[in-house]
Amino acid sequence: VLRPAMNEVGERFSSGEFFLPDLILSAEAMKRAISLLRPMLSGEDVISKQETVVIGTVQGDVHDIGKNLVVATLEGSGYKVIDLGVDVPAEKFVEAVKEHNPAVVGFSALLSTTMVNVPKAIQSLDEAGLREGRLVAVGGAPVTERSAADWSADIYAADAGTAARLITEHLSKPDAKPAKARKPEIVDTIITHGDAVKLEPFVGDSDVERFKAVLRGEKVDRVPNFENLVDDQHVTKLLGRFAGNTLSYGGDPAKGASEAVGRPMKAADFVEFCQITGQDVMVVEALWTPIKKRMPDGSLKPAIDRSVKTRQDWEALVMPDDADIEDRLQYIREYKAASRGTRIGVAMLGACIIQTLYEMVVGLTDFMMMCYEQRDLVEEMLEASTVHFEKLVAAAVAEGLDVMYAADDFAWKNGMMIPPPLFKELWLGRMARIIAPAVNAGVPVLFHSDGKIDDAVEWLIDIGVDGINPMDPYGVDYRDYKKRFGSRVTLSGNIDVEFPLVHGTPEDVERDVKEHMDVLKPGGRYIAGSSHSITNFVPHENYIAMLNAIHRYGVY
Questions:
Q1: Which of 197, 65, 67, 157 is nearest to 501 (CA)?
Q2: The whole model's pTM is what?
Q3: What per-residue confidence (pLDDT) applies to 16?
Q4: The domain 2-172: what is its CATH number?
Q5: Are 273 and 227 in contact (CB under 8 A)?
């Protein structure tokens, strides 16, 4: 009775009728029911191999939203789940399979750039002689039926809501036989690639006025090119020296607050990068609310351990102060000073008010339940972030900020994480307050969220957002967005990192860019770029081919 009920919840989640809090609360209720019933049914609390699943997010990927949802639904369906966490190397999967002898091994990847490690991990199981007698399941935003078939995976789950049902169905088949993995061709870094494609001369030097104009819907000379992040090995190849990635000289803040160490890319290096690639703006990263935790020795560390479960936990944390604002402003000033004598602008990327909570401070499952069960606490936590970013944006605008780049991931490939009416009440007014200093000063606002954000686009336009990024291709049809929104908001990104950028050829990349230009360039309001970031898994020649194609086909 319970498993069919949980399957129904999963199906409703997949169809968009239910949202993350519904899925998680249902899974938690079922998990508690199973814990009570199991001893009565079996006489002892023993989990068999048939009911054990090992799961993890593959190496290089620190995102765990989807994986955690699958864990919750599997546990809610009565399985024993060995959760290996995130950034899991292949050898750790092998060790866990040896120790726990599971019926199913699940591999998750959120980033198209890290999905190349899924077949590598599967192959490690095969080489260790551990593939036989168990099923391999794969899933995650960039994973498709095609890639699952290429890897000879037994189970492909399009979303967390269907994972438990599919696993149960496969395990119930008496003749279910695991497929044999084929050895994949793995490229670990772009350094293995040659320089077959050279960056070509282009029309129109870097110019922030072009970027601002396209966000306002004005005519420009060419389609701007822009990336959230270009990783360090690409930067090194372009500059001829190490300069970090375009968000950080050390660390990778795009992966979360725990990775946000060091300082932003040095301004002189970023100016040179923009001049070489034709990008119009440099980006100062201020993604995460700098909430801190006091350690036993009295020192302060970022609150990133997802330990807040009660109001008492929250009240023990240290909120941001003026020193945290100055920490970001110093780089706005540095970038503005370095850009004098050029036409390169400065953008600030920040305001992850809800993502900070579910990824760092509280944790996804507990935060989603809090939205239903402790709304007053959720409001209080969101307000603390809002107050910080209100002050930061106002101060940055006063320092001459050219573009405000707000970001907060609130959707997945099938839709919103939280029911839209509730999310609107919790979030929209606060984001409006955050960007208000920019809107009131005439500073254009670009907004980033992964996933299918259809329900929120009109809201974003209403509060003054001028552009949306990255038009996640796993949830957004760029042709549809052009028809529905293209005359009222600038569209940015959408060139799929998985294919053509990681797995395609330079010719595939050029073809895809041209197809995007054919649809998105007419009438203006398009900023070309990838569907997220140019990481080191993208062959360098494909990145250069994308830039060349944008510059070639983007001229008006």
A1: 197
A2: 0.88
A3: 86
A4: 3.40.50.280
A5: no
